[in-house]
Every structure is written in structure tokens, then in C-alpha cells.
Amino acid sequence: MKAMKLKSAAAALIFAGAAPAYANLIQVPGAQVSGTGLGAVSTLVTIQDNDLPSKNGKSNGIESGCVSYAGSLASPSFECQAGLEGGDNQAINHLYLASSIAGLTSAGNLALVVNISEGKPGDTAVLTNLYLSLYRLDTQTQMNFLYAGGPLELGDKGGVGQSGDNLFVLDQAQAMAAALFCPVLSQCVIGGGMQFAQGTTSATPETMYIGAVTGTPVPEPLSLALLGLGLAGIGAARRRR
To answer: Which of 48, 59, 130, 233 could form a disulfide with 205 if both were Cys (CB 3.0 to 4.6 A apart)?
Structure first.
């Protein structure tokens, strides 16, 4: 990670028109598994900004990108919400119907994996913003789930194709809210976005993908199994602070 000063990330939650509802994502321990590279998993966002001139990014050292529903699953918008800058989207940015996620029986069991690819194991990048969005086709409404903690220094555990360690899920209350908001999985479109602190990314693209966890997310010690992502035997635990 390059030397830099971390600033508190304050998400701007004001949007034109009707504002989406918000809830929280939390980080839980995951397990690194191979075979999770691009094309092998349900990749939402792939972003890269190495502070170099590029037609694919703003080249300002802030790596940021999103994917949003704008009327078509096949033609997503790359506009960001929750105060993210955006603009560093690569070729692989997709929307998914919740019903297409293998093993998913409730929207409350959705999980995000953030994969760091910074050149070699041990290198890091600082995640400042992360969100998962659900868009209901039948009601044309949206609910966003944000990581609301402080900046996270996340490590490269093997680059593209080796991921699962950086796992984000909904707690029990927010899982219930997601299930109530999205009772029919075939009517819900999944999107999201992520952003990294300026100057902390320097190699190949970071990615974010979506999957399902079994059981009720994050009570006291709970075994998690990511389904449909080629991830097996992932354990997660969370202690109340």
C-alpha cells in the first residue's frame, strides 16, 4: 500500500428524486478459495485506477466503480450512489436477478466478496466504500445496503482467481429487511459499487461478486457456506462489541 492519509468517508445520501432506503453491510471472516476468477463467479464490478492515463478510468488514484439498474439487465448503468465517485469501470460489470444466484432462497442471505489484486500476496488496498443494491422491478423501488464502518485495509491473498477472504453479509435485522423488501427473487435486480482510498491501488483490477450464504446471517458463531461461487467450507464468526 502506498503512503497516504486516510480521511473519514462520509457517504452523501442525497439523490435526485425519491431516495432509496438504506441498511448496513458488515464484514465477517471468510476463507480463501481458488477457482473464483472472472467468469467463474457472479461478478458485479471490476475496477482499476493505477493513477495512470487510461480510457477506462479517471486516473486520479481513487479506484471507484458501480453497476446500477437503469431499465435493462443487458445494459446496466455505471452511475454510483451513496457518494461514490465511480468512473473506473472495466469490461466486466454485470447486473443479476436474485433468482439467478445459486442456492439463494431469501434476499437476506445475499453476500458480497471483495477481491484484492495488487500484484503479489501481502500487498494491500484500502476499501472506503461498499454497497449492495436491490431494485424491485414490480414496484420500481430500490433498497441499498452499505458498509458503514471505517476504512478497511484489505490484503491481496493471491490475486484474480483466489478470493473469498473479504466477505460482507447482512446482520439479522438487515437480512429480514432485505427479505421483506424482495419477497419474489425473480423481481429483484442486484447491483452495487465499491471504492478505494486514493493512492492505495497500484496493480491489476479489484473485483466484487455476489453469492448466497446458508442459514440466518451473523448471529453468534455461525458456519457460512457460499453457494454457487465455487467456495466451500467458509466459516464466519462475529462477536458483539
So the answer is: 48
Bridge partner list, 147: 25
Contact 234, 158 (CB under 8 A): no
**Inter-CA distances, 40 with 27, 167, 209, Å:** 23, 17, 10
The pTM of this model reads: 0.79
The Cα-based distances of 154 to 8, 19, 106, 113, 166 in angstroms read 17, 30, 28, 12, 7
Joined together, the cell numbers standing for residue 39 give 467468469
Can you say whether residue 81 is alpha, beta or left, with left for phi > 0 and alpha for psi between -120 and 50 degrees? beta
Which triple of cell numbers denotes residue 132? 449492495
Q: CA-CA distance, 48 to 51, in Å (whole number)?
A: 9
